[in-house]
């Protein structure tokens, strides 16, 4: 059975979570916020349900990527419970409030797509602390897992079977790129510094 591009993007996304989970297990990612990963887990489930109901996405299009995203976030939450701490932030309160309002909107209006839009706004509020962290402390997050996740989300754009399905992949490309960019800049600078140090070392000897 051949894989669709959406399923392939989901597999890549799942694989991107393995090195991240391993770094957390080894203690390389210090003090992961349990509150943030809890909010992201719930938001991923809500996004998955709203995306399915609001756009007609299926497992052979853009939905599989979101299923794998939910699995990844849940696994990381389980690891965070062992080594992390509860750090509830204002942005997470905003995220929770908007998520509840989105569910109410869905139930009252019957429009899953409208709920999906506001759930994405809520998710971005919950993601904001991570964005701030990567721009101010890029050494605290690994680059390659986020980069691989970015590639997976870009691939998922091409799995959409209609214009409505594009909303979720476009959002995740934007959010993931915003996190990945400072990590890439930092990793490149560290690479250049190591290369320069190796070039200078023979001269000092």
How would you describe what is shown here?
- The chain is an all-alpha fold.
- The protein has one domain.
- It is built from 7 helices and no strands.
- The protein has helices at residues 5-25, 34-55, 63-83, 90-109, 112-136, 143-157, 167-204.
- The longest helix is centred in the C-terminal third of the chain and has 38 residues, at 167-204.
- The relative contact order is 0.16.
Topology:
Elements: H1 5-25, H2 34-55, H3 63-83, H4 90-109, H5 112-136, H6 143-157, H7 167-204
SSE order, one letter for each helix or strand: HHHHHHH
Total helix count?
Answer: 7
In the residues, how many domains can be counted?
1
Quaternary structure: single chain
C-alpha termini separation: 59 Å
Mean pLDDT: 90
Q: How many strands, which pairing sense, and closed or not: the largest β-sheet?
A: none
Using the alpha-carbon principal axes, give the shape: globular
Helix content: over 70%
Query: Using DSSP, what is the number of strands?
Result: 0
Contiguous low-pLDDT stretches (5 residues minimum) are none
Proportion of strand residues = under 5%
**Structural class from helices and strands?**
mainly alpha
Rg (C-alpha, Å):
19 Å
